[in-house]
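Lecture 7, part 2: worked example. A protein chain together with alpha-D-tagatopyranose.
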Amino acid sequence: KAVAGIVTAASIGLAAMPSQAADSGKKYTVALIPGLTTDAFYITMRKGAQAAADALGVNLVFQGGPEFNPVVQVPVLDAMIARKPDAILIAPTDTTQLVEPLRKAKDAGIAVITVDTFIGTGKYQSGAGDADFPLAYIASDNVLGGRMAARALATAIGDAGGKVYVSNVKPGISTTDQREAGFKAEMKENFPKITVLETQFNENDANKAASQLQAVFARNSDLKGVFGANLFSALGAGNGVQQAGQTGNVKVIAFDAPGSIVDNIKSGLVDAAIAQHPAEIGYYGVVSAYAHLTGQSIPVAIGTGFTVIDKNNVADPNVAKYVYSE
Ligand code: T6T
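Predicted complex, written out as structure tokens:
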């Protein structure tokens, strides 16, 4: 029954508006293929994607591998193409090695959108290069994120400056490559007293990142800081600082914000985390796929935001809501 004074569709005799998909009798299936399944970043992305799927009446399928590795991801993608979803949202684990496997999806008539990471240069639908065929790229601005991490690390270290390095996954991943580039550019342009040592690549293995921290510290007892360029790099680098007995002396800036990193902020091991908004990426991924499938044109790129979490704001609910789901 309509409440007095409020006009609802029911109160003026209109039936609830069917969605376009319901109208045409078609329930779309959208697949989400993450970089790996057991990563709080992608678990949170899935939640956002599911929220949009529920709102739009879309069937969401989540399928990925246990490792961030193209050799593991390509068979998952091939199996998904064989299931013929209407659209595939994917975080490609390599800028070049996923190009041909994704072209197969496109050639099979499946709408391809990349989330988080990109293939080629990430400039899609431009007519340039052979990897511009995905319809859209929905992600953080990772160069900016790297610059933000550099500023946070420089602030944590203070005016004297000193030596720092980047703990990173491996070359060829668009996101982490861009973060490292943004970090180094910002240091070079604005923090001349900071020396950036050689990057340490950990293959997304936090234990390896922890050992590398200790090895770098053994060679550079005046090490002042480290930038962990993704969740596992940051977690491992922080653990390495703790194992070296350098908590508070070697500053840590983390990219990504799972609960474990937030605990490390509270304990003083990590100075700040650059939280991405993975739920937003998943949500707009599904919305974009649905819009495309129902005949709308869609933006070729959607940039999602960041929240910088540190000990001063970590208790604020408007900040804490960006901590990733596990
Ligand atoms: O940092 C995220 C993601 O953006 C990156 O592409 C890969 O690593 C994460 O999933 C965190 O582990």
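The pocket of alpha-D-tagatopyranose is lined by residues 35, 39, 41, 116-117, 175, 230-232, 255-256 (CB under 6 Å). The CA atoms of residues 117 and 207 lie 24 Å apart. Keep this in mind for problem set question 3.
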